[in-house]
């Protein structure tokens, strides 16, 4: 007897063919078929016939006349058909769980993490959704419209550029979720809905004029606080970003090949904006003559350049520094032009002065910390003159003096 006879008999009897025996033609045909295709047994299933409670195996490719519907009814044991059939349960994917995994992988700074958490919390509060798999384009638009009608703590409307920035956070989060097989969607719900600004509604940051720069530098001499005394001078003559300045330590002001410089290197407590931000900036003669190096010598070894400035709630030194400098320039010196940035306008001025001193694009990029050869085939290759002060000092020496009124 074939090893498939017993499975064939069992299969026939379960289907209602109680008269099936080893010698019956029906059993022999089924046994031979099972032997030919061993996978058939796993595929055999009971099913309804014309809506009645009669069953038979779904035996593919077998003679229909050998397997007519049985003449009696068989009770279904495996499931209760009187109960409604339910769909497979949905597995939610919490938005905040995706965010946590995303931030862990990317290792964002604390300030950047808090910003992303704020954006996600606001989205969940507005849409009343926390399951990313249920978020639709309509939810994204609802969030955008609600945010556009929200007032800031100053009573002003949230700006379109703020909404655009927050949208990029959500869009990148969804893209990351899809790439990591946490989400599945045809189109990112946050794509293509950024609010458009009218051209000319936001004025770009402009550099200080020569008159404004001289006024600020002269008045800084009256400040007893080291930060307000020296920050304007260092920013004016080095083009440093405020965050770069705030994380400088005494040892970063040094001498390389007989040139007084600021050696800007990324450290654990002083992240730089980009790899190209690492650079060596020669000190201008006005900064040395003003006594900046004497101040640096007075600091303890390892001290921050301005130890009196404390970190803000995001543990960022540049936060409170920006507030101090902004209040002094806008409120005390009454330079309140909204197109001026109290700190960053110095950087704009420095780049203009470097260009007017005859710097090539590569030298200008090296001094400002921009990518070498941006926009060209050389982009991202080499470090240029970023760490060659004997090359960049030639331009620093040709720069005009702000304190002497040489810059208009």
UniProtKB/TrEMBL annotation:
GO terms for molecular function: DNA binding. The keyword Zinc does not apply. Keywords: DNA recombination. Residues 203-395 form the Tyr recombinase domain. This is Tyr recombinase domain-containing protein. Residues 63-93 are annotated as: Disordered. InterPro entries: DNA_brk_join_enz (IPR011010), Integrase-like_cat_sf (IPR013762), Integrase_catalytic (IPR002104). One of its GO terms (biological process) is DNA recombination.
